[in-house]
Amino acid sequence: MIRDTSRQDTKIEAAPLWKNPKAIKSTLALGFAVAFLTWGINAWHSTGSVDHTLSLSRINIAQVERGNLVRDLVVQGKVIAANSPTLFSPAQGIVKFSVKAGDSVKAAQRLASVDSPELSSQLAQEKGQLNQLSVQLQRQKIQAKRQQMENQQKADLAEVNLIAAKRELKRSELSMEKQIISLLDFERSKDDMSRAKLEYRQAVQNAELEKESLTFETQTLELQLSQQQLQVEELERRVRELDILSPVDGTIGSLAVTQRSAVAANTPLITVVDLTSFELEAAVPENYADDLGLNMAVAINLGGSELPGEITAISPEVINNQVIARVRFTEAQPQNLRQNLRLTARVLLENRNNVLLVKRGSFLDQSGGRHVFRLNDEQQAERVAIQVGALGLRQVEIVSGLQEGDQIIISAAEELESAQLVALKK
User: Where are the bilayer-spanning segments (predicted)?
Assistant: First the structure.
């Protein structure tokens, strides 16, 4: 008979867990693993969203503050003569210069003369016509006096005939009352009286009408003479202008033609430069052309000092992506100015008070002024969308996105191009 195996097994009592070395090791290993995993997860949460790490020595940081922004523009320019008139030939002829380029001249000094035979001949003809009209006017006045005397004589004779007819009629009336003359003779006396009245009245009227006609003809000749006199005076003025005089004190800039050249009317001959009055000709970039305006203030840098000026003219055309503006000195002109001297000027475009400002930096070029990296309390810089306003020479206006006291990165770095959050380290 086969017995069971109950007698072959030996019952072993289970030992407590704290007395088991293997269990203790396993528990400790599991605890360390959980702790390390928790630390890794926390570390990942704290640094996992940081895109890059930048050293503070590689960046420039500026603080947003409130103040006044002067929007200006620095331009380069050259000093030019404000007054440099060009003189032209008044008529066709041969020009003869009395000066050379570079000579100093005074106002009203003769610079050149133009010999114009055509203009001189025309003046002589017009003067002859003027003398002829003057003689005709004198002849007309004499003729008018003679004609008026003849008309007055006719009127006087008609008046004498009228008086005689009145006397004859009165005699006929007396004779008719005494029956000395016939009725036919009396009627004839009355007819003679009526004829004499009519002739006298017509003679007086003809004399007055003839007088008006002679006066009108005399006035017509006087008007023709006056008109001819104006033409002669105009030609005399043009002949006087054949002597070209300097309009200002200055220097001869250039001669447009050579000596004894044949020139047409209105041909440029000579340029006079007034060295007592200068202006600055500044080249302004095209994108600032809309911001320019007349009488806009300009600070001109001369030898380290700033001189006040203002814009007096703006060119309507764009040349080489630039607009030319004329700037004059508003105060006493410096004595050490010379033509073609290169100067720097600062155009004061705009002045804005009590706005948010930040120092200008290369972040404008990198981000286009659409966003910046603002520093937080955890040694990090986060991307923030902003809107910039006026751009000054040293500062930029912040319209939105930042507050007073914020610190931002104003320098450019490759790590900032696509990052959202950047860690900073010393």
Answer: none
Is position 12 within any domain?
no
Edge-to-edge strands of the sheet including 110-115? 243-245, 110-115, 93-97, 262-263
- Is 14 among the domain residues? no
Q: Measured between alpha carbons, how far is 412 from 269 in angstroms, rounded to an integer? A: 58
Backbone angles phi, psi at 51, to 5 degrees: -85, -40
Strand partners, 278: 81
Q: Is 308 helix (H, G, I), strand (E, B) or coil?
A: strand
State the number of CA atoms in the 13 A half-sphere of 241 facing the CB: 15
**Whole-structure pTM over 0.70, yes or no?**
no
Cα–Cα distance between 212 and 214 in angstroms, integer? 5
CA torsion angle 339 343 348 349 (round to 10): 80
C-alpha span between 271 and 85 (Å, rounded):
6
Rounded to whole angstroms, the Cα distance separating 403 from 385 reads 12
Please check whether residue 201 is in contact with residue 214, taking contact to mean a CB–CB distance below 8 angstroms. no
pLDDT by residue (tens digit) across 331-356?
888 888 888 899 999 898 888 888 89
Asked whether residue 137 carries a pLDDT value surpassing 60, the answer given is: yes
4: phi then psi, degrees, rounded to nearest 5: -75, 175
Same domain membership, residue 252 and residue 110: yes
Pairwise CA distance, residues 148 & 211, whole Å: 6
Structural domain span for residue 283: 75-81+275-351
Residues 164, 229 within the same domain: yes
Q: pLDDT band for position 47 (50/70/90)?
A: very low
CATH code at 145?
Answer: 1.20.1270.60
- Angstrom distance (rounded) from CA 90 to CA 118: 12
Number of domains into which the chain is organized: 4
Same domain, 151 and 207: yes
List of long-range contacts for 331-340, beta carbons under 8 Å, 24+ apart: 331/307, 333/277, 333/278, 334/302, 334/307, 336/302, 336/303, 337/79, 337/278, 337/302, 338/79, 339/79, 339/80, 339/81, 339/273, 339/275, 339/278, 340/78, 340/79, 340/80
Q: How far apart are CA 184 and CA 196, in angstroms?
A: 18
